[in-house]
Structures are given as C-alpha cells and as structure tokens.
Design a protein that fits this description.
Length: 367
Amino acid sequence: MTFTSQIKACHQLAIGCAVILAALIAAPLAAQEAGPSGEMVIATREAPPFAMKGADGKWEGIAIDLWRAVAAERGYGYRFEEADLTGMIDGVAEGKYAASVGALTITPDREEKVDFSHPFYETGFGIATRKSSPQWLTLITNFFTWQFFQAVMALGIVLLIVGFLFWLAERKHNSEEFGQGIQGLGSGFWFSAVTMTTVGYGDKAPRTPMGKAIALVWMFAAILIISTFTGMIASSLTAGKLEGAIAGPNDLDDFKVGSIAGSASDNWLGKERISFKDFADVKTGLAALEAGRIDAFVYDAPLLQYLVLADGSEDLEMVPGSFGRQDYGIALPSGSELRDAINVSLLRHVESEDWRRSIEEYLGESD
C-alpha cells in the first residue's frame, strides 16, 4: 500500500469515527426531544388540582390540560409516566424524560439541572391547620385543667392547715368566734380564707398573742400564694390564646410543622430555620395534621386549599393568605430545541378563555 493510500484510509477511518460519535451523541437527544414523529415520555406526579390520576389511570388537571393543549398544537406524541418530585427533575436532566409537567416550582437549584418553560401559574405557600375551638370553649378547657384543680386542692389543704392553727390558738380564749368541733374548724378555715384574699370581712378576729402572730405570718405568706396562683391562671389563659393561633408564617416557630421532602416549601422552611418534619406527599401530611402529630402543614397554597376543600374535612382549615412567591413551569432538558416552540404555545394557551375556565373550574378563581 502506497503512502497516499494510507493517508486516504486514515482519512476515511476518521470520518467514520466522527459519524459514529455524532450518532451516539444524537441518540439521547433524540430520545429526549422526540418530535412530532416520536413519542415523548412526560413525567408527572399527583399534585391536585394540577395533576391528578383517575381510577382508570388517565391523568387530568390544570397542568395536564395545559400540556395537552401545547402538544396538540405542536403535534407531539407523548405518554405520561409517574415519578416522584426528585425523579421529575433528575429524570429530565438525565434524558429519561422529555419533560416534566405538574406543580413544579422554578427554583435556582432546579434551574442548574434543567431548563424551564415560561411560568404558567404564579402562587405562594399556604398553611393548613386544625380548626380551633370556639373562643369561649377554648378558654374554659384551658382554664379548668388538671393542673388547675391540683392547685385548687393544694390551696384548700393549706387553708385547712392554717385554719386549724387559728382554731388551736383561739378556741379556749375566743370561743364565741372559734367554737368547738367542726364549727370551730370551719371558722378557722373561713378566717384564713378572708385573710389570704385581703377581704378582711370583719366578723372574726384573733384575740390571743399566738393567734395574732399566726395571722401576721399568714398575711405575708398569703401575698406570695396569691401571686403564684394569679401567675398560674394567667399562664392558663395565655395557653388558651395560643392554641390554634397560627395566623401566618411568623408563628410557625412555636409549633410542630410538616412539609414535603425536596419541595420549594421544604427549602423555604430550612432557610428560615424552622424545624419541620418531611412527608412523602400532601395527603400523608394532612393526615398527620388531622391526627395531631403536627400543628401546621406548609406547602403550595392552591394544592393545600384544593385538598382541604376536596376532602371536606371538618377538622382542617387554611390560614388566610399566602406568602413567598412560586412560579410553576414545565421542566425541559438543558438546551432543549423544543423550548421556544413550547413557550409560544404555552403563552398562547394561558391567554385563552379555555385557561381561565380551567383555573375557575379547579380552583374557583379567575386567573
């Protein structure tokens, strides 16, 4: 073989290797972005009312309807595949899915892994809590606690002891006011009670030096006892006001809080240094809330509101208002060639009457 022939052979080999390499690189991209002639695999998960799986296995919801409108306009073939929240992002980043559709919040961390479409829904975080008792009932139940009755019994015993001492000191020299037997003990109890409360009823008074000394000591001791008892009552009333008093995110520090692992609300709670417990999904978290294992559940406001109302629970309610900002978008592979086309169709749909009807149907609000 001549030198020229060797050069040509090497050149042809290099071209062949380049073609093979290009095919290997293009294969995953083709799988990710299967166009009108191929079937896309679209990841989603249960996130009512944006994505819901029916008993027949069919998906519906605000985000699902949006994707169907986009796909119909662009002529995309697709099928849905269920994944968890982490899998929806990682699966797109790894080329397993062509897109992820649902209640996906656009965050900086997720944007580092995948691209997002334009936002199609703006919302915030919400708080679900157990319904509080009527105010008067809350005050009664928090005032008349077992600790309260223990304190009353202890105070009664102290009054009996002090009354007995008064009776011992006065019964021989002041029998008119502190008589014999039960009557005398009752008089001692009565005198110790009116002295403690500083009422000074005036119907009875010690005459003996010992009785007066006991009365003097008891007056000062009663001041301390009354102060302690008043503090305990104030504490009970404060506890009654605190129960069910979650009015917003600033109150969460004092309560047991739950959220969804890997969610935007999960990240928000972590940044705010609020202790919380992770749950696999919203329904599990709300069940824990209803059972009293947590005091509040924080997640996307429209999802919480929909589930609390849909379940018709008599024990749960939403704290009015929302906080923070969330934008929902469709997750796409980084550098996706379909992104521009999807964005055009998405924007066209969210400005349509169909979109407004969809929002009103599922959330009872106009977009």
